[in-house]
Amino acid sequence: MPPELLRMIITAVLVVAFVFLNAMILGYMERKISAHIQRRPGLMEVGPHGVLQLIVDGLKLIGKQLVVPEGSSPFLFRLAPLLSFAPCVLPFVVIPFSRKLQAVSMDVGLIYILAMTSINVVAVLVAGWASNNKYSLFGTFRSVAQAVSYEIPMLLSLLAVIMMTSSFSLEGIIEAQKYYWFILIQPVAFIIYFVSGLAETNRAPFDLPEAESELTAGFHTEYSGMGFSFFFLAEYANMFTVCSIATILFLGGWKGIPLPFYDYSGIIWFLLKVYGLLFVMIWARWTYPRVRFDQLMTFCWKYLIPFSMANLLITAIMVKII
Amino acid sequence: MAYGTLIEILFYLFLIMIAFGAWQAVTSQVLMRAVMGLAMAMFGVAGLYLYLNSPFLALMQILIYVGAVCIMIVFGIMVGYTPKELAAYAIEPRNTVVSLVASLLTLGVVYLGLYRAQWVPAPGAGQGDFSLSTLGLSLMNRYGLAFELISVVLLIAIIGVVAITWNGKRRGLNK
């Protein structure tokens, strides 16, 4: 077997394993943090402090039947979870976890990640349409409108950093933060990016696409078993991707206090930063109430986009002057 | 297995994807299937760019055409019409004739252009530097006019959309 092929197989296995592990960690984190914010113990039954609960949940989901609703479009209905899951796994291939822990080094790594995450919208659209359910369709409409709108400030805020480093390569952007993190000179871009990231991943306070009290579960209402768990995995993988882009572009990636075997152990700093941001995401969910739809759109089009435009213009002028 | 064969197989796979997707996009009565076909064709085109060793163009193709344009099509039409209205409108025989004429005309113009063109290598090409910065600089400097002309095409598309929707309103399609 050629070494290149072996490398590809190892990468694929590790990446998929990491996506599952990440979903389990985040699922546990979410339920435990929400519980403590609401002053209750949360998961306690399976394993010490309920750490094994998510494994049991996973087994339960694997065992369940995938029910295809009547009047739906069976092929598209079955296609949608895969279409949602596959592109969410792919960004992990180019993320530099530490100096040497990166499967593929790409000149256009950032664009690759953004292109892959943009496919998720198509999956949501297919899922909602194929379900033949009005809640799904409403959730889809909301999700797509939200994702399409919030993609603009997200890309604009990232462009400011790209202008400064004139590089799309993730390693290049980390190397450019040798002396200081970019959050110090681009705080506005970071905030805009993080808020848009919350909206892109359909997290509270922007979780209108799956507002439980109005729409049951939004676009994945009709999904059960593995169909549902693919969406679940994809959501958590997306959250990880969004936070790792934030870490790479604004928080210096794997850079931190040097440790032994730094070429590999940088992953400790990287994961600490990413899970710190993920903690903030979960924290925000249990702190802010859900926004109304007009507030959502107003916030994007009247505040985030003008501010990110202004930020981009100022950055362009500063880059030209310095 | 040699990598060459694998790449050739992928190339034909992309071609099949484009052809099947385009066929689905044109013939399907259900809007969603048509758009999925279009997305599939666009994926295939992105694959061809990869085959031509241009990952930047391939990713842009996915980002813009699959992630944005296809979504906008579905969104624009879904909000406007119910699927039944749309299907009923699409199979009028008059429209078939009009679309046939339009597509044949386009084919003729494109074919004429391709047939008459004197193919010469682009100046500056073939020297081996195809990096992103070179690409950007040449787009902004040497090929500035062509770059601007492409945006005129977009303008024409917008005007065309406005014209079509206005006609639709007058004929009371929106009821």
Q: Domains counted in the coordinates of chain B: how many?
A: 2
Q: Main sheet of chain A, how many strands, which sense, barrel?
A: none
- Please identify which CATH superfamily of the largest domain in chain B we are dealing with: NADH-ubiquinone/plastoquinone oxidoreductase chain 6, subunit NuoJ
Distance between the termini of chain B: 60 Å
The average pLDDT value of chain A, as a whole number, equals: 83
Most extensive contact: A-B, 25 and 23 residues
The fraction of residues in strands of chain B falls at under 5%
Q: Quaternary status of these chains?
A: heterodimer
Structural class of chain A: mainly alpha
| Beginning-to-end CA distance, first to last residue of chain A | 52 Å
Architecture overview:
By secondary structure, chain A is an all-alpha fold. Chain A has one domain (66-321). Helices cover 68% and strands 0% of the residues of chain A. In chain A, helix 2 crosses helix 9. Chain B has helices spanning 3-27, 31-51, 55-80, 83-90, 93-116, 132-140, 144-170. In chain B, helix 2 packs antiparallel against helix 3 (55-80). Chain B has seven helices and no strands. Chain B has 175 residues and is mainly α. The termini of chain B are far apart. Chain B folds into two domains: 1-100, Up-down Bundle (Four Helix Bundle (Hemerythrin (Met), subunit A)), CATH 1.20.120; 127-175.
